[in-house]
Each structure stands twice: as structure tokens, then as C-alpha cells.
Design goal:
The structure holds two protein chains of two kinds.
Chain A lengths: L11 E3 L5 E3 L3 H22 L5 H21 L18 H13 L15 H26 L5 H27 L10
Antiparallel strand pairs in A: 1-2
Chain B lengths: L7 E10 L4 E6 L12 E6 L2 E6 L9 E6 L5 H8 L5 E4 L15 E6 L4 H8 L6 E6 L8 H7 L2 E6 L11 E2 L2 H8 L6 E6 L1 H14 L4 E6 L2
Parallel strand pairs in B: 7-8, 7-11, 8-9, 9-10, 11-12
Antiparallel strand pairs in B: 1-2, 1-6, 2-5, 3-4, 3-6
The chains are: A mainly alpha, B alpha/beta.
Chain lengths: 187, 220
């Protein structure tokens, strides 16, 4: 049985490519935020209405994709460990666009800012969206800081951008589906 | 424990005792089963599952496991007595303790049956690594011949006194050997075995050779 080792008890951890780095290393920050996003998505999924099977399926796919993305973020570019990584499927961003369009079709046009909130599941979706935006910021920071970053990180960047949009639309969709009107921002 | 749906079934073919508490279990290779040297699978016995590292090469042939009978362990005790011909459920290969080609000097460090992934890597053609195997006594130095042939340096590290004529013998823990003898670098280290060894060696390398890449897997 494989268990914890305590190798990280003094503030360092191993990247997937083996390098020992401090736990505040930019790569650890980046995939740590991705881990946080995945956990928040788990909270959203736990609140999803039981009839929303298409959205439940979306979440299974998204949470799996974030694991794939996390492995790339945890690996130094051009290391031999990259040979063990699975690429994100080429269609993941397009698939999300299709789902955004499908959910948006039932929603009124948005003409004002809305306050994040409403039903608990929608509120959690907004939280997930903001964590997703932070993941994007971390990722751009990582890409800027690293020479020779992979094409894969660029694909993850696109995916996270699309995922943020999906989560925003999802929050609106869920509030509407559950009979709650989004509150608009009053100046 | 929730036992996941097993991916394969395998038939126990033979068991060979290597010392009083450790044996090699040979099992049939299920059709379509694939793995990378260093990976492990879950074997399911009487509704309980445990993970065991394959010591056979991925290229073909029966599947072989190195198993220590754990005091009070349900699965290892059952496997220690299981009859040839018994069919077991088996999971897919998992794990990331795999050899990554490098131009750095490679050190593989094991305690006890933690030698298993390195046996598989040697059988798979990995060569030229330094290998430290820590055990209490000489009868725990499994697969010496194969490992000596594959390694550029094979260092048996025995924590109990007694044997004197073993080539390369070091009396003491693997961690102590590294602390006293590792110079230069940077290195790639592969660690497998006890949690204490992995924790102590990781912290030591963090201090003494911070550019070291470390890949590890702990056995309970």
C-alpha cells in the first residue's frame, strides 16, 4: 500500500518531473489553485439539482480535465517526465463553447452587471468562476516566468478562459431554473 | 473497504519463498494487460485489495510480484497460502515511479521489498544506475545477481552485523551511506520502501544536494 512519506514536512515538495521546490514555487501555486478550483467544482456539483444530468456530465468531464491540466502544470517543460503526460483532448474548449451556447439559449440577454449569488448552487458557481479566473492569472504568470513553455499550457489557458465563461453562464442558468431572479448592480 | 470493479482476472501459477517472510508470486498475464516497469496493481483477495509492484518486465511473460507477509496482514497472509490455480481479481497498472531517461547519475535506493520496482526496471533494460538496497540481513537482498548485472554500482546496506564477504557491503542504513559518500551531482534519485527512509533521505538531499530530482513511492 502506498502512503504519505513526510518528505514535504520541511516546506519542499517534488514536481512530477522530480525537482524539489519550495511549496510556494510558482508551479505549486499554479496547480494548487487548480486543485482548489476542482474542489470548489465538487461543491457546485454536490448542489446540482438531480434532474440536470447534462450539467452533471459536464462536471465529470471538467473535473477530469483539470486533473490532466494539473499534471502538466506540475511538470517542468522539456523534462523526460512529459512523456508520461496525457494531452488535453483537442476538443475540450470547443465542447465547452457548445455547452455555453446551449445554456445561454434559455437565458434573457444580459444588459447589466449582476450580483454574484442567488441560489446556493449558483452562488457556488460564481465562487468557482472567480477561482478559475485566479487560475488563469497564475497560469499566465507561470508562462511568462518560464522559458520554453509547452503548447499544452497554452491550450490549458484557453480551456480555463472558456471554463470561467461556462461557470458564469451556469450560475445564471441555475438561478433561472430554480426560480430566482439575478439581482442587478444598482449604482 | 470499497473494492473497485477489477479490470482483469489473473490465475496464481506458483509461489516461491525467498526467505522466511517474503515470497515471489507468479500469476498469469491477462489478455490486454499492459504496464510500465515500476508500476503496481491491486490484487483482490476475499474482498480486500492491496497494491503490489510488478517485478517482471512489461515486454511479456507471466506477471511476478515480490510480496512480504505482513504480521496481521489479511491479504499478504492469504497470498502466502493461496493455492496455485486460484483466480484473483486484479486492477489496472498504476503509479508514476517509472524510469525517466537522463544524462545525470541515477541512484536507486530501496529498503526491503521496496526493491521491487527496480527489479522490474532492470528486467526492462535499464542499466548503469547506482543501487542501494537496505535490509536487516543478507537474506533480504533479493535478486542480487540480476541487479548487480544491471547496476554500475550495487551497494547492499545491512543494518545488522554478521556478513563480511559480500562485495560492496556497507554496514548501516542507506541514508547514512548517502550522507557520508555522495559527492558531486546533480543527481536523479528514485526512492522506494519505508516512509522513514524516504522522509529522511528526501530531507537530507534537500539540504546537501538541492538540485537533485527525487521520485519516490512509500510502502506501508
Amino acid at each position: 500500500m502506498k502512503v504519505y512519506t513526510g518528505g514535504g514536512d520541511k516546506g519542499k515538495t517534488s514536481l512530477f518531473s522530480g525537482e524539489r521546490v519550495p511549496k510556494h514555487h510558482i508551479r505549486i501555486e499554479a496547480y494548487g489553485d487548480l486543485d482548489e478550483l476542482n474542489s470548489v467544482l465538487g461543491a457546485v456539483a454536490a448542489y446540482l439539482p438531480s434532474g440536470e444530468t447534462a450539467i452533471q456530465d459536464d462536471f465529470k468531464g471538467i473535473q477530469s480535465n483539470l486533473f490532466v491540466a494539473g499534471a502538466w502544470l506540475a511538470t517542468t517543460p522539456n523534462s523526460s517526465a512529459m512523456g508520461y503526460l496525457t494531452p488535453l483532448a483537442a476538443t475540450v474548449a470547443k465542447d465547452l463553447e457548445g455547452r455555453i451556447d446551449a445554456l445561454s439559449a434559455a437565458l434573457p440577454e444580459l444588459k447589466e452587471f449582476i450580483l454574484p449569488g442567488g441560489q446556493p448552487v449558483a452562488a457556488w458557481s460564481h465562487v468557482a468562476r472567480t477561482v478559475c479566473r485566479r487560475c488563469e492569472r497564475r497560469l499566465t504568470e507561470l508562462i511568462e516566468a518560464s522559458e520554453g513553455e509547452s503548447i499544452e499550457l497554452a491550450a490549458i489557458q484557453v480551456y480555463l478562459n472558456r471554463l470561467s465563461d461556462y461557470l458564469f453562464v451556469l450560475a445564471r442558468y441555475l438561478n433561472q431554473a430554480l426560480g430566482t431572479i439575478d439581482q442587478t448592480w444598482k449604482k | 473497504m470499497v473494492v473497485p470493479t477489477p479490470a482483469y482476472t489473473t490465475t496464481v501459477l506458483a509461489r516461491t519463498w525467498l526467505n522466511g517472510e517474503t515470497f515471489e508470486l507468479n500469476c498469469s498475464r491477462p489478455q490486454g494487460f499492459d504496464f510500465v516497469a515500476g508500476q503496481y496493481v491491486a490484487l483482490v483477495v476475499r474482498g480486500e485489495e492491496r497494491e503490489y509492484t510488478l517485478i517482471s518486465p512489461p515486454a511479456g511473460g507471466d506477471l511476478r510480484f515480490l510480496i512480504k507477509r505482513v504480521a496481521g496482514g489479511q491479504v499478504s497472509a492469504a497470498l502466502a497460502e493461496i493455492a496455485p490455480g486460484t483466480v484473483l481479481a486484479m486492477g489496472r497498472a498504476k503509479g508514476y515511479l517509472r524510469y525517466r531517461p537522463t544524462d545525470r547519475p541515477v541512484y536507486m535506493v530501496a529498503t526491503g521489498v521496496g526493491i521491487a520496482p527496480f527489479v522490474a526496471m532492470a528486467a526492462d533494460g535499464v542499466r548503469g544506475f547506482h543501487l542501494l538496497h537496505g535490509t536487516r540481513t543478507e537474506d533480504g537482498l533479493f535478486y542480487q545477481q540480476e541487479l548487480r548485472a544491471a547496476a554500475c554500482q550495487y551497494l547492499p546496506c545491512l543494518s545488522r552485523q554478521g556478513t563480511t564477504d559480500l562485495p560492496g557491503l556497507y554496514h548501516g542504513y542507506v541514508t547514512k551511506y548517502i550522507e557520508e559518500n555522495l559527492h558531486g551531482g546533480p543527481f536523479d534519485f528514485y526512492l522506494c520502501g519505508s516512509m522513514a527512509m524516504i522522509r529522511d533521505l528526501t530531507h537530507l538531499l534537500d539540504r546537501s544536494h538541492p538540485a537533485t530530482r527525487i521520485y519516490s513511492e512509500a510502502y506501508h
